[in-house]
Amino acid sequence: MSKILVAMSGGVDSAVAALLLKEQGYDIEGAYMKNWINEDNILGDCPWQQDIEDAAAVADSLGIPFRVVNLMHEYRSRIVDYLLEGYQSGVTPNPDVMCNREIKFGVFLDYALENGFSEVATGHYAQLQEETADSPRAIIEGADPNKDQTYFLAMMRPDQVARARFPVGHLLKPQLRELAQKHNLPNAAKKDSQGICFIGNIKMSDFLREYVPDRPGPIIRADDDKTLGEHRGLHYFTIGQRRGIGVPSNSDNNFYVVVGKDIQRNALLVSFEAPSAPGLYSSRCEISGLSYTGEPFPDDCKIEAKVRYRDPRVAITCKRISPETIEVIFDEPQRALALGQIIAFYDGPKLLGGGIYTKIQS
Ligand SMILES: Nc1ncnc2c1ncn2[C@@H]1O[C@H](COP(=O)(O)OP(=O)(O)OP(=O)(O)O)[C@@H](O)[C@H]1O
């Protein structure tokens, strides 16, 4: 029977993933991935030591072998550099999506295959539709609509999907917690992690402050080009952001919102929140780095997409520009799309693939 390496973060989701596979009779081992932040420890916070202890304790209670895999160098080159380059060039990268393709189902899967395993399991809320004569294995949204994580898997390639397992994707989070308690898993009551896969409990703004030099520039009102103030660096801001701009609206009903970045002038563009705010809503965009989780979808087609994590699926039309680039036209204009971020494509609950916003048009 095939051997499965379970990626155990110390959190409850991957603990239950291991529990379920064990109960189903699979030959499994657990592994914690040590990433770059573990080694550098510059920000004086090390929640990961506790995470390793928690993952080891869960493996112990399940009676499965456990190891720590050091992926520090790969993480530095594939994720941290991508993150820093993105922020330095004025776009908003998505380390979580890249982490799944490059690390969890990239170097970590390679490590598993080299060490006698045939699959990698994670605690992602996603389901799998097994391969049929007509189509390869497909990723389907998780059963818990509040927890579905398929968006983060959008850039996975078919060969990676073929070797992935998501044992908890059919569960609702409360059911998962109940299972963890019923089986006395040592981390049954542990709080959920905050998302960004390697930064852990460290805030993105602290990370940026440490690694990307400040580069002050003007805050400009996009409607009339009036300078309203100064920002510390474009990388601290994302389109659609309202908090922390530092420019009062002097009015009770109007709020300034970031509507864009003018890279040439190093200017942060703001406007009052409104459907007519210049650049805030887009009806079309260009997507590069197009990647499919299974069969490629047709050159010109009507499908659905999630424009960001936690957004509902929306109707889109795709038009092919080149092998790796498409134009996406939204049925309804979408608010605050950020260059560098990821769009995920769907056919109903089935994930089709993803790509990177490289041009956004109103
Ligand atoms: N440092 C790590 N070592 C091993 N596996 C990891 C690590 N970080 C994340 N994973 C794997 O990736 C999955 C999704 O990661 P994410 O950070 O979204 O955690 P999560 O949904 O809070 O799950 P968990 O409760 O297992 O931490 C985890 O369930 C786990 O299988």
UniProtKB/TrEMBL annotation:
InterPro entries: MnmA-like, MnmA-like_C, MnmA-like_central, MnmA-like_central_sf, Rossmann-like_a/b/a_fold. It is found in: Cytoplasm. Residues 206-271 form the tRNA-specific 2-thiouridylase MnmA-like central domain. CDD domains: MnmA_TRMU-like (cd01998). It is an enzyme of class 2 (transferase). The active site is at residues 99, 197. It catalyses: S-sulfanyl-L-cysteinyl-[protein] + uridine(34) in tRNA + AH2 + ATP = 2-thiouridine(34) in tRNA + L-cysteinyl-[protein] + A + AMP + diphosphate + H(+). ATP binds at residues 7-14, 33, 123. Signal peptide: none annotated. Pfam families: tRNA_Me_trans, tRNA_Me_trans_C, tRNA_Me_trans_M. Belongs to the MnmA/TRMU family. This is tRNA-specific 2-thiouridylase MnmA. It comes from Pelagicoccus mobilis.
